[in-house]
# Entry
Amino acid sequence: MRPVQGGGAMLRLEKRPSPSRFWQWATPVLAVLLTMIAGGIMFALLGKNPVEALRTIFWDPLFNAQFASYSRPQLLVKAGPLILIAIGLSLGFRAGIWNIGAEGQYIMGAILGAGVGLAFYPAEHWFIFPLMVVAGALGGWAWAMIPAILKTRFNTNEILVSLLLVYVAQNILASMAVGLLRNPEGGGFPGSRSLSKYAASSNPELIAGTGMHWGVVAAFVAVIGAYVLLQRHILGFHIKLAGQAPRAARFAGVNPQRLVVLCMGISGALAGLAGLFEVTGPAGQISIDFNVGYGFTAIIVAFLGRLNPIGILLAGLLMALTYIGGELAQFMLGLPAAAIQAFQGMLLFFLLAVDLLTNYRVRLAARKEAA
Amino acid sequence: MTATELLRVEGVTKAYPGVVANSDVSFAISEGEVHALLGENGAGKSTLVKMIYGLVKPDSGRMMFRGQPYHPSEPRAARAAGVAMVFQHFSLFDALSVAENVALGMENPPPMKELSGRIRAVSTEYGLPLDPGRMVGDLSAGERQRVEIIRCLLQDPKLLIMDEPTSVLTPQEVEILFKTLRQLSAEGTAILYISHKLEEIRALCDEATILRRGKVVATCTPRDVSAREMAELMVGATLTPPARAGTPKGEVALEVRGLSVASPIPFGTSLKDVSFSVARGEVLGIAGVAGNGQDELLLALSGELPAPEGAVRIAGRDAGAIGPNGRRAAGLVAAPEERLGHAAAPDMTLVENALLSGLVRKGLARHGFIDWGATETFAAGIVKEFDVRTPGTHVAARALSGGNLQKFVVGRELSQAPTVIVINQPTWGVDAAAAASIRQAILDRAAEGAAVVVISQDLDELLEIADNFAAMNEGRLTPVRPVQGLTMDQIGLMMGGAHGMEVAHHGH
# Structure
């Protein structure tokens, strides 16, 4: 086989001596723009006006007089759990520890937290909700410890184990909704008592009309905490080091096993917290279809935000916007749900594709004819 | 001699962004000639032979091979013309046999049985014992090199290029190699021999071309000039050997007793019952052919590889089960061989890399919170004191040249007021001036009372700076002997003599 030699110009990739700071921040913006263009073409092929579709997704939820009053608070409601989970995942991802099962940890946090709350029903004590928060974090943490310990003890792959445990968690959720946690006064319908209507366990909207609840507060705290950890704390330094150069990390005295337990634990606990705040607030009860995929979408949010806490905050808000706008577009323009999911998928696709600009420089090189 | 000219290089120039690797280089080789290409790291030797082997294209100039214009566009074309090359770093697969590895490098490999026969024939003809059925992962470095050489010889080359072939060999193995090369040369094969080991060149080569900063600065007949003259032509300055004060020895600072640990590296060498001790002010040199357990010894001393209790004692206190940071706190610093990825994180800045190992002894964090100001000062101090050429401390480690990064890594460890220093290959890939300053810095620390262990494959380096000498051989350490009075022959025997010769004889 003889390679075809072109006489014209061709693209060549050249590794940069240092990663480009400009492109590190410019690639997410470029990815969003490319997603809009490709998404617009897709919407056009589906027979919809692309400009109208993009406006419905990105503009109307926030500024359209008719919908904004409902959808604006939804922004924080949806972004809260995404950010909270993504912050936890990003720490592990930075260290090269791949927890893909946040969805399962989210479910288990919700179940354990709700179980603790319902055990006190109908008592009214101030400590019930804080206790549920602790139980929620503990539930997610414990579920994440399964892949963590299997990895450190038996060197199993944490990606597979954490992912498969999502399906186990879903089945436990279904069994709880129709069994142990079912509302005894619910007339036989699946689903627990309403936690949001039981004052001692409810996670209400803190400022009316904003969507702000305790879960959103926790997400903001997590963003600040992760930022300080990564910039100022030796543990954050070791997390970054382990991800970039595992052998150098050992040289620096990092214990890789301990790091696995720690990162899986933190991400599991934050996912569990997100589940707890959701089940006591926006969702309101344990039901068969309680989980809606926040745990998986948070993976996209983590990468879209460059595994950087501030980036994740912005990416979480953007992702929430496409959720709300997507629903609106389904409802107003009759766009199929699959098209909205494809649109969200494009975002990750383009981000990963343009990501190489950070480490590589694209050069136009005139290729000389080989002698 | 009026031998026929084989290769002529005329006015060849090759520039990379920021560096001119070769500038107007000309030289010629006759058939059967052993020609040395001599120069420091970065003098342009590698670029030049890469052009001859078709890996790099010259910007200008021309080459003639056997009277024909010669411009190979890829190594395959060079091989077809009769040029073969043995690289410094072998491209062999550990999990395949010798014959399978040889077959992988051939365009149309014959059936395995026939190939094994041919490998046996060539290996006996040239005195290079090698069993075609053995796994490459089980071979010593010298035997691996034989695989590469035999792979080349099967192509019946007219010109054989050898890039630093003896850096992985014991003195006895060097003798075997030289015998083979002389035999090839007598049969009319020309050899282009790249090295910076001057005595070897004097023993082997007919002609030498000396490069400095990409230019030919001199040609000479190595037998007629002294090694010192050649070294000064190579460096372009008068060399002063490192000065050392004969320090009185203090109490034992590092003691290793019966250390046996399994290697964490696939096809690595486990340490077997290693014992030695180093006193304050003493420099112990540990020699050995690559892959005889030196990397594992460094890991076991730095604490990255847990050792049994009592096997490693720092200043009399047991440090066997203590990790890297605990050992640093006890006064031991270590510099691994691999700079990028082990001693330093490639994508992190010099400041972050200063924190990497300086955290404990320099107190760069309080309650776990990093003092970036102090870290920055520490990094800047290393850059200044050890003359690290860098635009600043906020550049990524991978942006530095090998020599500059090595100065930074060694400087980082030496700047921590250590009582025990362990360094693997302190001057590997570093130019002569930088190497001299690194060696001087090591000796200065020893003079201040640190116990030093230098692991190196460069015998000249060890003889220059060490007080005592030992060699690693298949994971075992020989008894420690004073450097004074050691002969090259004794050193060779300590390193395992002609490695693998017996194995090949009792092969099956």
In short: The two ends of chain B are 46 Å apart (CA to CA). Residues 499-508 of chain B have pLDDT under 50 and may be disordered.
